[in-house]
Specification:
About 20% of the residues lie in helices and about 40% in strands. The chain is of the alpha+beta class and about 270 residues long. α1 crosses α5, α3 packs across α5 and α4 packs across α5.
């Protein structure tokens, strides 16, 4: 499948911004399931490309006096293949064991540990089947509810509250898997939805677990599925904090900041022969 992607992020301020730095993780990586045909990142300032510790392609954006509006546009085309959600460890970066490390967003506290415990036996028998059982149990426990959580919401909070978005489903899945000694990582990127007529207000997030002898197996807990050719990954990490699309600091602009995000993912049909 060939996907055309346009990701627009606009910041509007009450006064002009004098200076700012943004770290961007907006460029899809190359692996067995996706090939970047073309990709550009446009922003009002100087962009410097680099690779982070997880193997993600990143840009540092530095801007001086951009005015009271900053717009960042990442766009291009990616050709995807359906690998049934399985990827070899080919991206480089940190060792697989790193993804056992807890973070504040994925800490296995008592709430997470209690949820994980009943799945220990299934995981010990068959790790892949156990992971599928965990994903189903999490989605049954946590309703999808937009606007009810934010980027600082933890896995434990989502479990206690019983609601969240794709980011929360991913964090809970990662926390539970790590509690059961399964390496798990956070993935940010894009999802093509065939019947979506309008751009989405955000990107997408899912998780992947390491299965020895198989590789990284992706789980989109929110949508009750594994990865398909409709998924395009842009960054992996321990959690949202290390794989988020963008973050930064600024001077000026006063205190008010209005953010708008538009993500348009469409299949680009090849001309009939």
């Amino acid at each position: 499948m060939r996907l055309s992607i346009v990701h627009r992020t606009a910041y509007q301020y009450d006064a002009a911004v004098s200076f700012g730095i943004q770290y961007l993780r907006l460029t899809p990586y190359a692996n067995a399931s996706q090939r970047v045909i073309r990709w550009t990142v446009e922003a009002p300032g100087k962009l410097t490309r680099w690779t982070d510790a997880f193997g993600n392609s990143c840009d540092t954006l530095i801007f001086d006096d951009p005015g009271d509006r900053i717009e960042i546009v990442a766009a291009g085309e990616v050709e995807t293949s359906d690998t049934t959600g399985v990827l070899p460890d080919e991206q480089g970066g940190v060792p697989v064991e790193t993804y056992l490390r807890p973070t504040p967003l994925t800490d296995a506290d008592e709430t997470v540990a209690d949820f994980a415990a009943p799945h220990a036996e299934a995981v010990s028998r068959d790790r892949l089947d156990g992971a599928h059982r965990i994903a189903t149990a999490i989605r049954d426990r946590i309703d999808y509810r937009e606007g009810a959580t934010d980027v600082q919401s933890s896995a434990s909070e989502a479990l206690r509250n019983g609601y969240g978005v794709c980011q929360d489903h991913a964090h809970v899945f990662i926390a539970v898997c790590r509690a059961l000694h399964i390496p798990a990582r956070y993935v940010s990127g894009y999802l093509h939805v065939a019947d979506r007529d309008a751009p989405a207000p955000a990107g997408h997030a899912w998780a992947a677990v390491w299965i020895e002898g198989l590789g990284w197996v992706s789980f989109d807990v929110a949508n009750r599925t594994c990865g398909t050719e409709c998924y395009v990954g842009t960054a992996v990490g321990l959690d949202y904090e290390s794989a988020c699309p963008m973050r930064g600091i600024r001077e000026g602009g006063e205190s008010a900041e209005r953010l708008s995000v538009s993500v348009d993912v469409r299949e680009k049909r090849r001309p009939a022969s």
